[in-house]
Each structure stands twice: as structure tokens, then as C-alpha cells.
Write a structure and sequence with these properties.
By secondary structure, the chain is an alpha+beta fold. The protein contains 21 helices and 9 strands. It has a domain of 392 residues: Cytochrome P450 (Cytochrome p450, Orthogonal Bundle), CATH 1.10.630.10. Its cofactor is heme.
């Protein structure tokens, strides 16, 4: 990025983003004002007399002299105070980091590639705690299991909040939601609603039925192809969306396509570097940025759609058209709203944010993990054969749709999923945290208000914790008995501590039931003579590190399957 031109620099100075750089121009402007003021005062008394002119010039010279003396004295006092403060209060040590540039800070080190990979490379030079300036935003990147444990366990409360950038503040109602919620009583209430009401045992049983029905439809759609090449990325994205839609709304709804389109637009805005987020103190940057305007428009559209759905559902509930024993997630939220027993009421806007959080967190992540699972299995035929053999031997022949209760003894398939999550965590950089107070980590000072990114991608590929970390080898989990529940910090694809993903078990169970059915009911091949070693495994830039290219496979029905009719 080229250095900003003079008008841009002037705007940043006046907006406060570069207060330190403004000192030289400050004295120049004050001197000019003083000159004009003195000249003006002198002008009032001039009557074309030469003596008055001399008096005015003398007064002007005296004004200049006073201004210079004040300036020099101020500088001397400031320097003296700085020396005193330097002796009594030594500057606290920040984590190391790469060299920075004026205005943009460390941004040039991050852009131009995949941020999680660029940060992984830099952390190998600068250490497990690395300090960056992303525009105006002080940022610390965590790249070791030990540092991650200090952030997400030992000092979890100090790191429990979320930063509220300009765009995140718009979509998350200034921290009132769940994913981007600011830590406090409101967020704790929202978390409890999510864990107890939305993801509790009653809803878990209901969602198992939803997954079974959606998987059955997926199997039938694959069987219709009769051995043709299938765009599996598209199929897996569709079932991920359909499961979440039925869980939240009970089925499809009129504005679903529009809602999903606007949802994707918001996710695109959130994954990029917008000027408004990088330079929040600069009015010029916010004016130049389309991101803030686009986010307001898109978020407004999302809220309008949800408000319409809520109105329709309220009318149906008033007419007793909803089945009391079969509440979807929207019904649960509306029931809690009607009970009016919460410390922080659930307004239609808050309900809209909660629904957005569920869709944003569940759809992309689930589809991405399934996509990578089929990619890694296709790239490693021996692993594919071993996983299929286990599923078919354990479950036997002539099986219909495999359900959640059938999964308990599929140990190798679970190891496959763990290995996929290790190499391809759905969020390679966990949703950033923000320090609520000053704290010390590994001897370094982390100031209050710092953004903290845990790079689980880097930790999951660190040879310190994993043998041959770039190799896809599910068998590593036979000897390494660790889980992704947030207690083993070398393996935290869903985070840990207070801000751990509350939908972790829902997402993991969806991946398990879909993958088990795909392995049992079909045999899989790469099309067009593609050899496994040449399969493109590139990632694309985003909040979720999805495949850059769709994966296409040939699905041949398993003869002993009773779940599909051809």
C-alpha cells in the first residue's frame, strides 16, 4: 500500500489517529494565528503615522518572541517530564512483532495472502505471542498451546470480551448478540439461553430427527445421478443450510433465498479489511469506506426479513397453529419474549441477531468440515477404504439411513473427523477476543482493549505437538487420546473457555451423521482420471477457511444399501 497523500494525512491528523505526528504543524498554525491576531490588533490603531507603524512592528516582534519562548519552554518541560516518567515508570514490554509502517502499521505483513498462514509464518520468527498494529488496532496473535491456555483458561475472564469494530457493531447491535457480544450480564444471559434453551436436550432430540430427514433427501439426490459426477461442495453446503433452517424456522420460509443472500454478503464484509474498521478514529476513512454503508444496508435488510417472519409467527401462535410440543428455535425465543421474565428483554432486533449468529456460525462451518473430509478421504484412498470398512462392518448390511444412535462404535471415523478438524479448523483464527483489563502473559504486557487472535491453524500444525503435522493421518489419535472440547490446547478448533462455540456439539454431530451415511451408502471416486495426489487442496480467504475450488466426485450406490431407491 503506498503512503497516503497529504490530504489523507491531514485528515488522519485532525481526526486523532496520528496525534503524535501533529506537533510540528500545530506550532506552525499557532504562529500564523498569532501573527494575524497581532497584525489585526495593530491595524486597529494605525492612523498612517510612521510612529504607530513602528509600535505595531515592535508589538508584533514582541508577540513572536513570547510565542517562541512559550514553545521552547513547553518543549523543555515535556522533555523533562518524559525523562522523569521514563526513570520512575519504565515502559512495559509488549510482545515482539514485525517492523511497522506509518499509518498502516503491520497491515502490509498480513494482506496479500491468507492471514492465518501469514501469521503462522511470522510467529515462527517472532514467537508464540506476537504484536501487530492492524491499522490503528493493537493486536496480539497467539500461536502456541501454552499461550492459548493462558488466554482461554488461566486469564479467561480478562480475555472474555469481543472487540466491537464499526462493521461488527452494526450487525451485532453494538455487542448485544452472542458471537460478537460484549462480555457482561447481557451476554451471560444470551449464553444461558443458547446452552439451556436452544441447544438443550429437548432441542437436541428434535434436531436428530431433522438431520435424519435431511440426510435421507441428500442420499436420494445423490442416487438419482446414477454414477455421474456430483458437485459435492454444493450438496454439502445445501444440507448444512437446510438443517439449520429447519432447526430455526421449522422449515423453509418465503424470504429464505433473500435472507441467505444477504447473510453471505455480511460474511463477505466481515472477512475483509474495511477502512472503517482499520481506522475507526478517522472520519475521512469512514467516509471513504463502502464497508460501513454496505453493512448498514445489508444488516437493515436482514432485520426487515426477520421482523416479517416474526410477525407471521406471532400471528400463527396467537391462532394456536403451532404445535406446543414441537417448538423450533424461533418459537423458543418468542416464548421467552412473551414470558417477559428476562433481565434483558428479547426485542425483535435481538432475536434477529441471535438467528443471524446461529446461521453464520453453523452453516459455513459444517459445510466446510464436510467438504474437507471428503477431500482428504479422496486424496487418501487407503484412509477412505478403512473408514468405509469400519462403517459397513459395524453397522452391517441392508441398512437404511444411519442415525445418531448408530454412531457410538465408529471409532476410526471419529479419528478421521478429528484429523480433518486439526488440519482444517473451520475458523483458523478464532473469533477475536478483547482484553478487558491490562494483564501479563509470558512476561509481556497486554494492554486493555487489545484484539487477541488465537491462531488454531498454526497450533494444529506445529511439530512441537504433532509428528509430521502436514500429513493426514487419523491414526495419530489412537495414541494421542485428546478431544476438541477445549481442555487440550494444542487442539481447540471450537475454542475454549467462556467464549467457546456453544453450538460445538450440534455441529460435530451433524458432521458425524452426514459423513457416516456418505461412507456407508456410496463408493467414491475422483472424476476424469484425476489422481489423488493432484487434487487441489487450496483454501480461500474468509472467516471460514473453505476450499478454494469445489470438489467433484463420482458417487456409486452401495449394493447393500436400503436407504436409496434408484
Amino acid at each position: 500500500m503506498p503512503p497516503p497523500n497529504e490530504p489523507v494525512m491531514h485528515e488522519m491528523i485532525t481526526s486523532g489517529s496520528m496525534a503524535a505526528a501533529s506537533s510540528p504543524s500545530f506550532f506552525t498554525q499557532e504562529e500564523a494565528r498569532a501573527t494575524e491576531a497581532v497584525a489585526s490588533r495593530g491595524g486597529v490603531n494605525i492612523d498612517h503615522d510612521h510612529q504607530d507603524e513602528n509600535e505595531a512592528l515592535a508589538a508584533m516582534e514582541e508577540g513572536w518572541l513570547r510565542l517562541c519562548l512559550i514553545g521552547v519552554s513547553t518543549l523543555l518541560v515535556l522533555c523533562f517530564l518524559k525523562l522523569l516518567s521514563g526513570k520512575s515508570k519504565p515502559q512495559k514490554r509488549l510482545p515482539p512483532g514485525p517492523w511497522t509502517l506509518p499509518v498502516i502499521g503491520s497491515l502490509h505483513h498480513v494482506i496479500g495472502g491468507l492471514p492465518h498462514r501469514r501469521m503462522m509464518e511470522m510467529s515462527r520468527r517472532h514467537g508464540p505471542l506476537m504484536h501487530l498494529m492492524i491499522g490503528e488496532i493493537p493486536t496480539v496473535v497467539v500461536s502456541s498451546a501454552e499461550a492459548a491456555a493462558l488466554v482461554m483458561k488461566t486469564n479467561d475472564l480478562a480475555f472474555a470480551s469481543r472487540p466491537c469494530s464499526v462493521t461488527q457493531g452494526i450487525v451485532g447491535l453494538d455487542g448485544a448478540g452472542l458471537v460478537f457480544g460484549t462480555y457482561g450480564d447481557r451476554w451471560r444471559q444470551m449464553r444461558k439461553i443458547c446452552v439451556v434453551e436452544l441447544m438443550g436436550p429437548k432441542q437436541a432430540r428434535r434436531m436428530d430427527g431433522i438431520k435424519t430427514k435431511e440426510v435421507e433427501q441428500l442420499l436420494q439426490s445423490l442416487a438419482v445421478g446414477g454414477g455421474a459426477t456430483v458437485n459435492m461442495s454444493s450438496k454439502l453446503a445445501a444440507i448444512s443450510v437446510d438443517v439449520v433452517t429447519r432447526a430455526v424456522f421449522g422449515g423453509t420460509f418465503k424470504q429464505q433465498d433473500e435472507y441467505l443472500h444477504e447473510l453471505n454478503q455480511i460474511l463477505k464484509l466481515l472477512r475483509g479489511f474495511t477502512l472503517a474498521d482499520l481506522f475507526p478514529s478517522s472520519r475521512l476513512m469512514r467516509w471513504l469506506s463502502n464497508g460501513e454503508r454496505d453493512m448498514r444496508r445489508t444488516s437493515g435488510c436482514i432485520q426487515r426479513i426477520i421482523a416479517s417472519v416474526i410477525d407471521g409467527r406471532k400471528a400463527a401462535r396467537a391462532a394456536n397453529q403451532g404445535a406446543a410440543g414441537d417448538e423450533d428455535l424461533l418459537d423458543v425465543l418468542l416464548r421467552l419474549q412473551e414470558e417477559d421474565s428476562l433481565a434483558f428483554p428479547l426485542t425483535p432486533e435481538i432475536i434477529g441477531v441471535v438467528i443471524f449468529d446461529i446461521f453464520a456460525a453453523a452453516t459455513d462451518a459444517t459445510a466446510s468440515v464436510l467438504d474437507w473430509a471428503m477431500s482428504e478421504l479422496s486424496r487418501n484412498p487407503k484412509v477412505m477404504a478403512k473408514a468405509q470398512s469400519e462403517v459397513r462392518e459395524v453397522l452391517g448390511q441392508d441398512r437404511g439411513v444411519i442415525t445418531t444412535t448408530d454412531l457410538t462404535e465408529l471409532y476410526y471415523m471419529r479419528m478421521v473427523i478429528k484429523e480433518v478438524l486439526r488440519l482444517h479448523p473451520p475458523g483458523p483464527l478464532l473469533v477475536p477476543r478483547e482484553t478487558r483489563e491490562n494483564c501479563e502473559i509470558m512476561g509481556y504486557h497486554i494492554p486493555k482493549g487489545t484484539n487477541v487472535h488465537v491462531n488454531v491453524f498454526a497450533i494444529s500444525r506445529d511439530p512441537k505437538y504433532w509428528d509430521n503435522p502436514e500429513e493426514f493421518k487419523p491414526e495419530r489419535f489412537e495414541k494421542k487420546n485428546i478431544e476438541y472440547y477445549g481442555t487440550h490446547f494444542e487442539f481447540t478448533p471450537f475454542g475454549a473457555g467462556r467464549r467457546q462455540c456453544p453450538g460445538m456439539l450440534f455441529g460435530a454431530s451433524t458432521v458425524e451423521i452426514v459423513l457416516a451415511n456418505l461412507l456407508y451408502h456410496f463408493n467414491w471416486m475422483l472424476p476424469n482420471g484425476i489422481v489423488p495426489e493432484s487434487l487441489d487442496m487450496s483454501e480461500k480467504f474468509g472467516i471460514t477457511a473453505s476450499r478454494k475450488c469445489n470438489i467433484e466426485l463420482i458417487a456409486t450406490p452401495y449394493p447393500q444399501s436400503k436407504a436409496i431407491s434408484i
